[in-house]
C-alpha cells in the first residue's frame, strides 16, 4: 500500500489548511515603532523607508489614535533630535521637557491605555552618533550606563510604561532597574535589546534619525565594540541570561529575518516574552523589491511576519504593523 500517509490531505482546501494552521498573527503581536520630530503639522517621509514617516507631536497624536482603532496597542518611540542639542553626554536626553518626554505625554494623553515604550540609547542625542559616551576613541561602559539609567528614569517620570534600552552596554539593565526601584517606579517595565547585532540592516533607521556614527578622528566608525558579532550564537544566550538576571521583563533579538535561529534558541532557553525587531533595512529591502515589481509586497510581508512569529517571537516590532493588520482583518 503506497503511500500510507498522505500529508497533502491536510492541505487539500482552505478550510482544512486554516484548521491545522499552527501560527496565527493578531494585532496583539505588534509593537509599532514611531519616529517623532519637532514642528507642527509635519509628516516627513523617510527617504530610505518609503511610506514611513517622522511625525510632529500633533500628527503623532492622530497616528496613535488610528493605531488604537486598528487594534495596535503598543508603540515604541524614537525621536529625531535637532543637531544643536546634541553633545557627547546626551544632556538633552535628560531634559524633562525634551522631545521624547513630550512625545510620551502626548501619546498617553491621546490614548491613555496605549502601551508606551521608549528607546533608551544616546545615539540620537550624541554628537558622535554613538549609543554611549565617547572618550579617547572608546565608548565608555559604566559612565554610559549611568546616563542611560537617568534617561530611563526621565522617561518613566514622563509616563512611559516600558523603557527599551537598545545600547548594549554591560550592566545597564541592573543600573536601570535599581534606579527605577529607588525612585519607586516599580511598575515600569524593561524591554532589553539583549541580543542586538552589529548589523548592516540599520542603515535606513540611521537616516531617519540622522544618528549614524560620524566620520571623525578618534570616533569609532562602527558599533562593533558594543553590538554583537553576527557570527555568534551562544553569546546571545549569555547576553540574554545576564539581562534577565539584572531585571529585564522582556528580551529582544534584533534584526529579525537573519537571526531567527537565535530567536528559537532564546525562546527554548528562557521563560520570558521574546521580542523581535524586524528592522529598517528589512523594511527597505521589501519596499525596494516591490517597487520594482520583483516581489509581491503583501505576500512577502505576511510571510516574513509569520516566519518571525513561528521562530518564537511573542512580540514583533515592525514597520509593517499597520499593513499586516489591514491585510489580516
Ligand atoms: C540605536 C538603535 C538602532 C535601531 C534601534 N535603536 C540603530 C543602531 O543601533 O544603530 C535600529 C532600528 C532599525 O534599523 O529599524 N540605539
Can you describe this structure?
It is an enzyme of class 4 (lyase). With 329 residues, the chain is an alpha/beta fold. The protein has one domain: TIM Barrel. The chain has an eight-stranded parallel β-barrel, surrounded by eight helices. Strands 6-7 form a two-stranded antiparallel sheet. Helix 4 packs across helix 5. The radius of gyration is 20 Å and the shape is globular. It binds ligand PBG.
| CATH topology assignment | TIM Barrel
- Output the helix-strand order: HEEEHEHEEEHEHEHHEHEHHEH
Percent range for helical residues?
25-40%
Under the CATH scheme, which class? Alpha Beta
Total strands: the figure is: 12
Give the spatial strand order of the biggest sheet: 1-4-5-8-9-10-11-12
- How many discrete domains? 1
Uncertain runs: none
Shape descriptor: globular
**Average of the residue pLDDT scores:** 97
Bound molecules: ligand PBG
Family: Belongs to the ALAD family.
Organism: Galbibacter pacificus
Protein name: Delta-aminolevulinic acid dehydratase
Pfam family, one: ALAD
Main features:
329 residues; alpha/beta; TIM Barrel; eight-stranded parallel beta barrel; two-stranded antiparallel ribbon; 11 helices; globular; binds ligand PBG
Amino acid at each position: 500500500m503506497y503511500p500510507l500517509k498522505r500529508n497533502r490531505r491536510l492541505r487539500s482546501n482552505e478550510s482544512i489548511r486554516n484548521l491545522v494552521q499552527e501560527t496565527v498573527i493578531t494585532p496583539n503581536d505588534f509593537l509599532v515603532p514611531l519616529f517623532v520630530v519637532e514642528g507642527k503639522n509635519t509628516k516627513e517621509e523617510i527617504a530610505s523607508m518609503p511610506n514611513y514617516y517622522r511625525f510632529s507631536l500633533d500628527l503623532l497624536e492622530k497616528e496613535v489614535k488610528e493605531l488604537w482603532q486598528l487594534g495596535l496597542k503598543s508603540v515604541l518611540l524614537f525621536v529625531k533630535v535637532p543637531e544643536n542639542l546634541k553633545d557627547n553626554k546626551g544632556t538633552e536626553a535628560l531634559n524633562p521637557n525634551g522631545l521624547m518626554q513630550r512625545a510620551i505625554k502626548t501619546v498617553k494623553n491621546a490614548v491613555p491605555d496605549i502601551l508606551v515604550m521608549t528607546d533608551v540609547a544616546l545615539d540620537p542625542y550624541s554628537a558622535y552618533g554613538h549609543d554611549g559616551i565617547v572618550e579617547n576613541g572608546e565608548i565608555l561602559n559604566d559612565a554610559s550606563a549611568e546616563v542611560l539609567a537617568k534617561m530611563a528614569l526621565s522617561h518613566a517620570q514622563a509616563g512611559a510604561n516600558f523603557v527599551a534600552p537598545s545600547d548594549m552596554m554591560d550592566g545597564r539593565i541592573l543600573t536601570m532597574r535599581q534606579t527605577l526601584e529607588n525612585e519607586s517606579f516599580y511598575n515600569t517595565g524593561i524591554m532589553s535589546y539583549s541580543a542586538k547585532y552589529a548589523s548592516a540592516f540599520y542603515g535606513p533607521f540611521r537616516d531617519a534619525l540622522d544618528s549614524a556614527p560620524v566620520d571623525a578622528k578618534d570616533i569609532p566608525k562602527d558599533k562593533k565594540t558594543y553590538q554583537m558579532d553576527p557570527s555568534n550564537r551562544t553569546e546571545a544566550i549569555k547576553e540574554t541570561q545576564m539581562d534577565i538576571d539584572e531585571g529585564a521583563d522582556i528580551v529582544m533579538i534584533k534584526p529579525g529575518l537573519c537571526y531567527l535561529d537565535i530567536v528559537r534558541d532564546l525562546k527554548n532557553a528562557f521563560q520570558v516574552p521574546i521580542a523581535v525587531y524586524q528592522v529598517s533595512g528589512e523594511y527597505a529591502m521589501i519596499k525596494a523589491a516591490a517597487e520594482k515589481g520583483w516581489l509581491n509586497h503583501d505576500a512577502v510581508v505576511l510571510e516574513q511576519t509569520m516566519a518571525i512569529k513561528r521562530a518564537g517571537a511573542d512580540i514583533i516590532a515592525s514597520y509593517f504593523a499597520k499593513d499586516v493588520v489591514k491585510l489580516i482583518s
